[in-house]
């Protein structure tokens, strides 16, 4: 488990950008944290690190946005409005867990529950589980751990 203290939205995006530059095909990045924690900011950085030209916005009304044109495709899922895990499957989201791109998932516990190791086993994921905590107005504690093969 690694911990990164971010002092600004730009620093959070920069962390995401570093991950985007390093990302291997099939990586799933699960982003847990309350509203306003900075999950979407981190995805914005991911897109930049992948050199995806699109502007990232929250897909809250669509469950999924796809950003193409970068080194790898970026699938951005937001499960804020999900009521049950079955709805994720019904919406066809399972296919985005195993791709040649990178998949970022906001509110992942709504689908996977609270145990990332179990979820990685069940869905055979290569997954970085990220928890963002609001410490202060612009300070965030970002903890992350990798699961899977
Ligand atoms: N250190 C920080 N990291 C990320 N966002 C921050 C930080 N400090 C302030 N913010 C602000 O918090 C908000 C985070 O919004 P957003 O990324 O949409 O959150 P979430 O997707 O987790 O709901 C933005 O308005 C951003 O400018
Ligand atoms: Mg968001």
Describe the structure in your own words.
The model has no long low-confidence stretch (mean pLDDT 95). It is built from five helices and seven strands, in the order E-H-E-H-E-E-H-E-H-H-E-E. It is 29% helix and 28% strand. Strands 1-7-6-2-5-4-3 form a seven-stranded mixed beta sheet. Helix 1 packs across helix 2. The chain has a single domain, classed as P-loop containing nucleotide triphosphate hydrolases (Rossmann fold). With 149 residues, the chain is an alpha/beta fold. The two termini are 16 Å apart. Bound molecules: adenosine-5'-diphosphate and magnesium ion. The site of magnesium ion (MG) has 5 residues, from helix 2.
Write a concise keyword list for the protein shown above.
149 residues, alpha/beta, Rossmann fold, 7-stranded mixed sheet, 7 strands, binds adenosine-5'-diphosphate, binds magnesium ion
Backbone shape: globular
Bound ligand species: adenosine-5'-diphosphate, magnesium ion
Low-confidence stretches: none
CATH topology: Rossmann fold
Task: Give average pLDDT, whole number.
Answer: 95
Over all CA atoms, what is the radius of gyration?
14 Å
Number of domains: 1
SSE order in H/E notation? EHEHEEHEHHEE
User: Which strand order does the major sheet show?
Assistant: 1-7-6-2-5-4-3
Structural class computed from helices and strand pairing: alpha/beta
Number of helices: 5
């Amino acid at each position: 488990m690694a911990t990164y203290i971010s002092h600004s939205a730009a620093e959070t995006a920069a962390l995401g950008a570093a991950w985007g530059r390093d990302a291997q095909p099939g990586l799933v990045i699960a982003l847990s944290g309350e509203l306003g924690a900075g999950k979407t900011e981190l995805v914005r950085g991911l897109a930049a690190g992948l050199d995806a030209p699109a502007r990232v916005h929250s897909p809250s009304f669509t469950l999924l946005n796809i950003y193409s044109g970068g080194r790898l495709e970026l699938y951005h899922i937001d499960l804020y409005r999900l009521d049950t895990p079955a709805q994720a499957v019904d919406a066809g989201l399972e296919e985005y867990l195993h791709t040649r791109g990178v998949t970022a998932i906001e509110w992942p516990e709504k689908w996977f529950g609270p145990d990332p190791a179990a979820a990685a086993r069940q869905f055979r994921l290569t997954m970085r589980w990220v928890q963002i905590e609001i410490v202060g107005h612009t300070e965030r504690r970002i903890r992350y751990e990798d699961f899977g093969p």
